[in-house]
Design a protein that fits this description.
This protein is an alpha/beta fold. The protein has helices spanning about 20-30, 45-50, 60-70, 90-105, 120-130, 160-190, 190-205, 210-225, 225-230, and strands spanning about 15, 35-40, 75-80, 105-115, 130-135, 150-155.
Length: about 230
């Protein structure tokens, strides 16, 4: 494989963990990859093996995350909660895992609540077992992103939809909190680089003050959560 033939900016759909190793990560970094998304899905091996049918080795996940940290490749990870067979303890275990790895290694979590799309095996399992919950009214009552709650969700004897919403809301709050802590750590070690980004943000706000919130959100999503972009190590 020639490194000049690899054209990667980022991997928005996620990459299987078992397809990566230190050599491939270094090649991706060298080729210009700035942000890698991986699919971890769950921190519970029983869920991975029996519900997701994905033989993800969590020890290897930790090793790869540490490698990304070492070579300064910003990283994100997909997780899914609310599958039939899970219980609230397994769901909270995955949330704690995701937040802990975000805090320790900067692996930004992307949480999703499982949605039983019609025509899928998951939908048929839920329909057969009476796990489909009509959430068309709930969508207008809960304050979560629109794509989090679908018209029909999964509700089992082990968890309610409201349980999943509560976990998701707590996850969102903690991600903001940890993002601020991580940014402060970068500020401590790289004050000039962070100061430059903040001045750039203030200048953009002054140029168009009516777009204050949107500008702030764009900087948060585009730079502040990616420390390696801020310090110019890409």
């Amino acid at each position: 494989m020639k490194t000049k033939s690899i054209l990667l900016g980022h991997t928005p759909n996620g990459v299987r963990v078992d397809s990566l190793d230190e050599e491939s990560l270094k090649l991706m970094k060298k080729s210009g990859c700035t942000y890698l998304m991986i699919g971890i899905e769950s921190s519970d091996e029983w869920v991975l093996n029996n519900l997701i049918n994905k033989s993800t080795n969590l020890t290897k996940v930790t090793e790869l995350i540490k490698i990304c940290r070492k070579i300064k490749l910003d990283l994100g990870a997909f997780y899914v909660i609310g599958l039939p067979g899970e219980d609230i303890n397994k769901i909270n275990k995955t949330k704690r895992f995701a937040l802990n790895y975000f805090y320790k290694y900067g692996a930004r979590p992307h949480f999703n609540i499982a949605v039983p799309l019609k025509g899928t095996r998951l939908y048929e399992i839920c329909k057969k077992n009476g796990y489909l919950k009509d959430c068309r009214n709930l969508k207008t009552k809960v304050k979560v992103p629109k794509n989090v709650i679908a018209d029909w969700m999964i509700e089992t004897p082990q968890f309610k939809v409201n349980d999943l919403v509560s976990v998701f809301k707590n996850y969102e709050k903690m991600v903001v909190y940890i993002s601020i802590i991580n940014l402060l750590k970068v500020l401590f070690w790289h004050p000039v680089a962070v100061g430059s980004v903040i001045l750039e943000l203030l200048w953009d706000i002054l140029k168009n003050p009516t777009r204050f919130l949107k500008t702030l959100k764009n900087y948060y999503l585009g730079k502040f959560i990616f420390p390696n972009l801020i310090v110019g190590k890409q």
